[in-house]
Amino acid sequence: MLDRPTTAAEIKGMYIGGHWVPGSSMFADINPSNGHVWAHVPDGGRQEARAAIDAAQSAFPAWSQMLFQERAAILLKAADIWERRKMDFVTAVVAEGGGWFGKGMFEAGYVPEVFRAAAAMCYNSIGEVLPSTHGKVSMAQRVPMGVISVISPWNMPGILTSRGFAFPLAAGNTIVLKPSEDTPYTGGLFFAEIMEEAGIPKGVFNVVTCSRERVGEMGDELVENPLVKGVSFTGSTPVGRQIAAKAGAHLKKACVELGGKDSLIVLEDADMDRATSAASFGAFMHQGQICMSVEKVLVHESIYPDFLREFVARAQKLKTGDTADNANVIGPLINDRQVERVKFQIEDALAKGAKAVLGGRVWDRFVEPTILTNVTPDMAVWRDETFGPVAVVVPFKTDAEAIALNNDTEYGLSSGIITADENRALEMIPSLQTGMCHVNCSSVNDEPHVPFGGSKASGVGRHGGKWSMETFTETRWITLDRGHRPFPPVF
């Protein structure tokens, strides 16, 4: 059993302008496994968001002009501090987010690599020299934008928060971070502790928190304030649409990484053990609360019975319960709204003729690993993102049919193909309407330096490595006229 984590007394406040600021009111941060109050967190609003934006704006000139190696040094120090404190994060994320211990350890190991990858970007080229028709020295330079708002999600608060701010920070931008109200500590205030200890200058990195009731107020300020030059959002497609629309109305850049309805395509020559393990991990890791989760398993009809039998056998070994017990791999869904959505999809599918060959039981905030067959397109579980431990298994006859089943969704985030024939997979990939595809692996994949993002309703823009640097910088054209370009004589 894990020790119970950080108490409310250890929540220092919001982090604004290099200072810990107590809130005028507080909201309850709930442990989703047991429903107990885990901490009390400052409930900020427009005023606190505006103060953080002003602090970030004031800090921008000095931070953007700081020597690149000095910015890199702070990010590298943050990585080292994080590694020293990784068990603090694991303990907190298990309680605050309901994740399995192994999931917490994975996040804790991943985040330092995000900081290091961002630090490495400080040493990369920031532009290029172009040819000029007039013999000028012509340069295209990437320059920081200013204040970037980062709105991060609850499901992977370590990875998705660090990814959202580390690269813009490396580029010379300043940050105002608003974590999810479901994980305000692990997705926000814990990072403030890390960055403060790393020596981040005052105002460069700020964290504001709020309850669900004040999300609209704070969120509007973080998008619409004229000092904010860009927005990084990871979360649901409905909210992402709103943020992108508001950012667009103000002619601001927005990188929005949204939902998915991802498929794992299992061809008839697939290694069965690899296929079932990829399906189990992809569908049930963190209760399926991952944007890249495998929600549709498309299996060639010739191996469908064998695959289904072995997939069920593998998944039924996963234990469900309070993740304070490390043996429970399937923890709670994050809140009651998520439970109701998943419960509705299961009940809707069963009422319309689907069969639960595994699971289907829902209690409190827990949902057993559930595998559904006989699913048809009129069911919500086929059409809508589930974000829970539910997988549908569907047979197909041809590669073209598998591609059509994969594409039958408004989403287009990730996908996977399991096959012994890599060339066959590579021939299929151009027809898959997804931003990412992984051959002989699950759709759940990420690395700090890769172009992470989707197509269609799964988002706009890319996170990771040089792609983040391009997203959160502006391009400036600079010329040096050394050939004295002639002007028309009339002038």
Short description:
The chain has 491 residues and is an alpha/beta fold. It has helices spanning 46-65, 68-84, 86-97, 101-121, 157-170, 185-198, 215-224, 237-249, 272-284, 304-315, 336-351, 380-383, 399-407, 422-428, 465-471; strands at residues 14-16, 19-21, 26-30, 37-42, 127-130, 137-144, 147-151, 174-178, 205-207, 228-234, 253-257, 262-266, 294-300, 355-358, 362-363, 366-367, 370-373, 390-396, 411-412, 415-418, 438-439, 455-456, 459-460, 473-480.
Q: How does this model look, in words?
A:
The chain is of the alpha/beta class and 491 residues long. It is built from 15 helices and 24 strands. The strands form 7 sheets. A 7-stranded mixed beta sheet has the order 14-17-18-13-12-20-21, sandwiched between helices. Strand 5 and strand 6 (137-144) form a beta hairpin. The radius of gyration is 24 Å and the shape is globular.
